[in-house]
Amino acid sequence: MAYVAPEPKIFACRQSEALAADIAKAFGAEMGNVSFSTYSDGEFQPSFEESIRGARIFIIGSTHPGSEHLMEMLLMLDAAKRASARHITAVMPYFGWARQDRKDKPRVPIAAKMVAKMLETAGATRIITMDLHADQIQGFFEKPVDHLFASTIFLPYLRSLGLDNLTIASPDMGGSKRAYAYSKYLNSDVVVCYKQRKQANVIEYMELIGDVNGKNVILVDDMVDTAGTLTKAADLMIERGAISVRAIATHALLSGNAYERIEKSALKELIITDSIPLQQKSEKIKVLSSSKLFADVMHRVHHNTSISSKFLM
């Protein structure tokens, strides 16, 4: 009798339980049973409460700050490896620590490389993630990496807005490639913001390269942290004659005074995915679900079929 592979099982890290439930529903599977015990000092231990021997499992968890989210993913991977799971896929909608992808000054770590090695050592046999901060991070892994693009989520929404005189904008020089990719699909112009930082999260100077007068502008970025860059860029564009400014950002870290900055800024709307759960609601923030994208890719991975249609950029 031919061997029939068992159906995959889906488990969630605690920081991504809501998204994992949506992914499991879109996938057509029940969530796997995992429990956590916590010591009084904060140390925690995950435990799979069902057999996963010989199974393909997907562990869903973003690794946004704090560091316990990464630790939780690592412990889940190690537990799955020691429980003899056959294939262990770390589904990381947001791959944290990715901003440290190179040595930009002496005596600093390359955290993204270190995290990649930790995930592989812990037991991950495959990684599925979305909109890495830098494409080359895929090369830090020795295991397969499926790098999905949130453009497959954002583009239909942007088209539904029916905006005339559309211009795509990059909030910095490093994001110009992403902006040009969106402009190709939306048949629009592109402008770029040039900025100089005094230190991390602090902008000293910003200038606009291009014309936004009479335009509806869409700022494109992979993440929004303190929202300083996006809000400053939006205010600058309105000053230069833009009709409206919206922003799309895949990962909404939204730390510090980010929510207050967004509310007070000229941004008409900030469009994000649910890769990281929001800490508070805002009428200016529109959340688009990534659950169907991840569920579809997970289904294709399990059945060994192509996922190239999910790469628009």
From TrEMBL:
GO terms for biological process: 5-phosphoribose 1-diphosphate biosynthetic process; purine nucleotide biosynthetic process; ribonucleoside monophosphate biosynthetic process. One of its GO terms (cellular component) is ribose phosphate diphosphokinase complex. Gene3D superfamilies: 3.40.50.2020. Its EC number is 2.7.6.1. GO terms for molecular function: ATP binding; kinase activity; magnesium ion binding; ribose phosphate diphosphokinase activity. Residues 9-123 form the Ribose-phosphate pyrophosphokinase N-terminal domain. CDD domains: PRTases_typeI. SMART domains: Pribosyltran_N (SM01400). Keywords: ATP-binding, Cytoplasm, Kinase, Magnesium, Metal-binding, Nucleotide biosynthesis, Nucleotide-binding, Transferase. It catalyses: D-ribose 5-phosphate + ATP = 5-phospho-alpha-D-ribose 1-diphosphate + AMP + H(+). NCBIfam families: PRK01259.1, ribP_PPkin. This is ribose-phosphate diphosphokinase. It comes from Neptunitalea chrysea.
